[in-house]
Amino acid sequence: MRWGKCEMSNSRLNKRRNCWGYVFIAPFLVVFVLFGLYPIIYTFELSFQKWNGFSPVQNAGFQNWLRLTDDSTFPLTLKNTVKIWLYDFIPQLGIALVLSMIFTFRKIKGMSVFRAVYYLPNLITAASIGLLFNILFNGDKSTINQLLMRFGMIDTPIAFFKSGHITQGIASYILWWMWFGYTTILIMAGITSIDTTLYEAANLDGCSTWQTFRLITMPLIRPTILYITITSIIGGMQIFDVPANLTNLAGDPQKAILTTSMYVYQQGFKNTSLGYASTLSVMQFLIIAAFSFIALKLIRKKGA
Amino acid sequence: MKVFKNVFALLLMVALSSTLFAQGSAEPQTKGPVTLEVWARGDEIKQFVPGFEAENPDIKVNVTVIPDAEMTPKLITVLASGKGVPDLFMQEANYITYLIEAGCFADLSKAPYHIDDYRDNIWKATLDVGTDSSGIVRALTWQTNPGAIIYRRDIAKKYFGTDDPATVSTFLDSDEKMLSVAARMKKDGIRFVSCFKDIYDSKIAQRTDPWVVNGKLVIDPVLLDFMDMAKTIIENGYDLGVDQWASEWIAAVESDDLFCYILPPWGYQYVVKPAAKKTVGQWAITTPATAYISGGSYLGIYDKTPHKDAAWKFFSYVLLNEDSQYAYAKKSGDFMVLKSVCDKLAAGEGEKVLGGQNPNGIFIKEMQNNFRKLNTVYDSQLNDAFISAIKAYAAGLSKDDAIAKFRQDVKTAFPDISVN
Questions:
Q1: Whether A247 and A116 share a structural domain
Q2: Of A78, A288, B62, B315, whose CB has the highest number of CB atoms within 10 Å?
Q3: What's the whole-model pTM score?
Q4: How far is CA A214 from the centre of its chain?
């Protein structure tokens, strides 16, 4: 009986605690529902409507989705986005792995300074960096052209932004430069959390550095790599600020850096076709979800 | 203790929640002076505010500067909710037709507005841009924008033997002559024009029809011909190789290897005049090969503003008041919308940057031409797409493919337009 009373009071206590939990998450929940969930649901609804932002909304049925099947620019923007992201992400992960190994296992003088310097570009807004690189590369008298000519490396200025490949390369480089420091810090955190006795045992067993890295470090930081990959896919597939500010919002030259997010913006706010822009957004969301799912399966499968 | 904990938790929750709604807690102004909210595309309009507020102490004006590309998204947001819509807002000539036709600007001929009282004193071409398809005036700019060649006197003397504006214009009065001069200058490392887009703006005004007629895309032969001219300019490096407003484009004012900008008076006001330091006195203005108007910051009054009278007072102070217009023009070097002010400016002193030349007489003469009303709601997007097609052609795409690309871009942006 006494035990029963005690059980009952515990259950009440739990209920009360649960109730306060809801109260405390309420502010976040309200913000999320208002500014996160509602816009997502509304975007989905708008994808079946026609609206220019000024006149009343009209029902469009599947018109926007049919338009998407006939749109040759959308696949091009997807290709551009994936290309810019891959050229940024692969070197980013590789260099971050190398740097984090060096910083974790070697005693380097001024390591914390290096770490801070590598992280610094991440603190500057992407729009400012896009503009900065525009000044560095745009025009015959751009800083880079002046430097190359002064050092006798070229005779005539290079029109960097007239070549699609170079412009894509510059966009990828900027993103790599902005994010490799952040990725390094995440991987270092992952390595630091590995039990040091595993390394001591490997050392006693005569493992080489490469074997230790391949057989101990890599498998144990797989969750960190998975996190980095998924968040990078989500962020990378929505690249906007850097390419938008590097040349113009049209993604010139010849749409080489027109990303999917820029295209959504163009359709929504330049062409004021908000219904179709919503359709593109929903499609972009589905593609990001699919890519993230594939990455999740691949990395987990490799770890199994 | 338990009660204290509960009270504390409740207070914490209320405090956290209240931060969410802090933005919306401000009460609407019910007493005191009227505050007009103005969304502008630049700082210039702020120059009118102190004088206006001094004359109208019961009206305050709050100007928020919003770049062109962001104006429409922001307007869509506030117009959709009906809250926070500014009393007056501005857009560039390329974008203004969309807003005019969308019906968010008031009819300026109806009370309490009286634009018709000023019609005779306003340049017709400027009024046309702010007029909707049914003939209702809904927006107006304080500046008028006849095209002009803003050139370097020292370079003109070297190549034409004179820097006299009237004579210089005779050397540049056709496309062929301009390309020939450009080729001569290029041999000495001098770029003829700041950007091929300068000339594009004049070609756009020479079309017979607007971009879209009865739902059908019209690519005027003038533009097809210009594609070849632009390719020649880009390929041979007769321009700076950067877009208008790039840092190098502005910096070229002080360089020794650029001959001219082909721009309306705003080009002098915003580009040449503020940037000229060591080149003060080295510039002059003359007429272009063909008369045209281009650009302008158009201002309109929100159709549902609760401050109609105050909005009209500010609108008329900026655009229709001779004294404020004259004071602004004297300071900025701009060419104005009121003919009477332009006459007064033409009779005044010249500009130091222009070596003492007073260009207003030239602008007035240019405005005597008849300009076709060619504005459509698609202008901004279609002009950008055509410029992209020109660049693609200059980069090596065949002319037919570049035009096909342009048609495809139009189809993608506006499926309702017939492009074939």
A1: yes
A2: B315
A3: 0.85
A4: 26
Test A139 with B242 for CB contact under 8 angstroms. yes
Residue B88: its pLDDT value, please?
96
Q: Do A53 and B103 touch (CB under 8 A)?
A: no
Tell me the per-residue pLDDT of B138-191, one tens digit each, with 9 for 90 and over. Answer: 999 999 999 999 999 999 999 999 999 999 999 999 999 999 999 999 999 999
Do residue A39 and residue A81 come from a single domain? no
**Is any Cβ of chain A less than 8 angstroms from the Cβ of B73?**
yes
Domain boundary assignment for chain B: 34-144+295-346, 148-292+371-413
Distance CA B61, CA B37 (A): 6
pLDDT of residue B403: 97
Q: Which residue has the tokens 């062929």?
A: B176
* pLDDT tens digits for range B289-305: 999 999 889 999 999 99
What fold does the segment set B34-144+295-346 form as a domain?
D-Maltodextrin-Binding Protein; domain 2 (3.40.190)
- Chain B's closest residue to A246, CA to CA, is B246
A3 falls in which pLDDT band (50, 70, 90)?
A: very low
Residues A153 and A262 in one domain: yes
- The letter for the amino acid at A26 is A
> Terminal CA-to-CA distance of chain A, rounded, Å?
50
Under CATH, which number does the domain B148-292+371-413 receive?
A: 3.40.190.10
Please list every residue in chain A whose beta carbon sits closer than 8 Å to the beta carbon of residue B80: 53
Residue B400 CA: distances (Å) to CA of B182, B224, B390, B394, B396 = 26, 10, 11, 12, 12
Whether residue A58 lies inside any domain: the answer is no
- What is the tally of structural domains in chain A? 2
Residue A158 inside a domain? The answer is yes
* Residue A173 pLDDT greater than 90, yes or no: yes
- Per DSSP, helices labelled H in chain A are 2-32, 38-46, 63-69, 73-105, 111-119, 126-137, 143-150, 164-192, 196-204, 209-212, 218-220, 222-236, 241-246, 260-265, 274-303
- Nearest-Cα distance to chain A for B256, in Å, is 13
Q: Within this chain, do residues A39 and A175 fall inside the same structural domain, yes or no?
A: no
Give the pLDDT score at B31: 53
Cβ–Cβ contact B32 with A under 8 A: no
What is the pLDDT at residue B26? 35
Containing domain of residue A106, as a range? 67-303
Looking at residue A8, its pLDDT comes to 53
- Tell me if A53 and B380 make a contact (CB, 8 A cut-off): no
Check residue B208 and give its pLDDT.
94
Per-residue pLDDT tens over the stretch B3-43: 445 544 444 443 433 333 333 333 344 455 899 999 999 88
Q: Is residue A250 part of a domain?
A: yes
In-domain check, residue A53: no
Same domain, A254 and A107: yes
